Amino acid sequence: MTDAEVSRSHVWLGRTARAATGLVVLGLTVAVVAAGTRLPDGDDPAVPATRVPVKPSATTLVCPGPLILPDDTGRGDGAFDPTPVDPISTVTAVTSSPSGPGAVLPLDRSTTWATLAADGDAVQLPTVGVPSIVRADPTDVPARVAAVGSGLVTAGDLRGLAAASCQQSTGDAWLLGGATDLSSTAQLVLDNPGTTPAEVALEVWGPNGTVDLTGERYLVAPGAQRVIVLGGIAAEQRRLALHVVATGGRIGVHVQDSALDGFTPGGTELVVPGAMPSTRQVVPGISVVASTVDDPHAPALRLLAPGDAATTATVTLLGPDGVLELPGVDTVALAPGEVTDVPLGGLPAGAYTAVVDSDEPVIASSVMSRPGSLGELDDSPSVERAWAASTAPGRAGLVALPAGTQGTLVLAAVSSAKDVTAGGAATGRLRLLGPGGAVVAERTVSIPAGTTSAWTLDELAAGTGAVAPADPAAVAAPHAGVVGVDLLSDQGAGVTLAWVVVAEAPQADGTLFSVLDPVPVPDTAPDVAVREDPRLGTY
Question: Is 481 left (phi over 0), alpha (psi -120 to 50) or beta?
């Protein structure tokens, strides 16, 4: 072997030795790591979990801001004004004991508009120019707080009472309501109360199935609002359903829905998130005037099966005397992804609750209309509309009333069994809150399973009346200073309460109204389960 060959041989031997050494070190490292992280042997006893209490955090509610006004660009010389009167935008916030101090702030938290005292308070802001938030500190339990944002318009294209309870921000919301056909306008409003940007993805369904949005996503800056004109991305949809998913931050979300019949206002309302898709949906607060089967202003139940499978929905209507039979409504075939409206014409005047059962998850809501009186220059009377979202029965919570409105409490007792009328009664204890958060009255109500009952807040405050007024559209006396309703408990053997408050603003040409969902309040902050890790000897 030559000297060069000997030299190359020594180089290769050195490289091989270094590689072998590296493999040995790597193998030893893997073995050590594996030994330190191996799972406990099968003979090790199970390590029990420990529930660690966590102090409740402050509650922050996102309130809808002022109504988005129509664009009158291109309407000629300006002789026709779509908003002849300015909308009245208000926020009402209430807290009930036990609660810590709170505040009402603009969405960007740049200042404090009003403060809320501890252990119960109420404030009403008569003019609000931007979206707002309401924040309340807890005590040993989460704060009992509610708020409502409202826009009142008495004339013009947006005539109506558009009010909605302020909501806790979310990363996942389902909304069922509105339209984008030639007579309708729908605008998705996204509010980011946080300190980080939120990226929002949308899914939209219409009467013919999923609407192709080409995967577009929307960024909402912290402390800011973004408005998406749904007619621009999902045009000519007579019925709408939306799924909103936010990442990076949590948002408040609603749809401003308005309609016109030629030049006649057809109502303006805020569509808010309802319950998540489920095989049972409960829609309380279907407060209607008497209608005929073919009445164009009759209420309707809107349904969607958002999955890939068809299903049949069984609809049970609960009235003051129990289940109300309405031919053609009891079973509804739902094609996957197609938004369906079920007419409820023919209902007697009163308050009702719809219980929807199906084999596949569905979402549900209801729309109601109330024609007003005919004006001197009108060809047809103006119409007011309201949307009622599905809700989860059994939730304690609060409702705040918009300034200048009166309210009717609507409660339904729904059995958790397949037969919604099974079982006894559901019982709730109510506190009516007046100006300053004082308790005006406290009442206990008991509702038989499978029924819906309603009382005006005047009746509850005075302790009179046992049933709802015969005609919920009739103008009642001004309420007795009630600005909030607090449901303290909901008890029953498998029977729970579903409830809303219908807010009404009587006008010379008809009553304007909105359905307000309760803001849920948990009894305690959830505990966190922790388990000792035997690998490390720590939690």
Answer: left
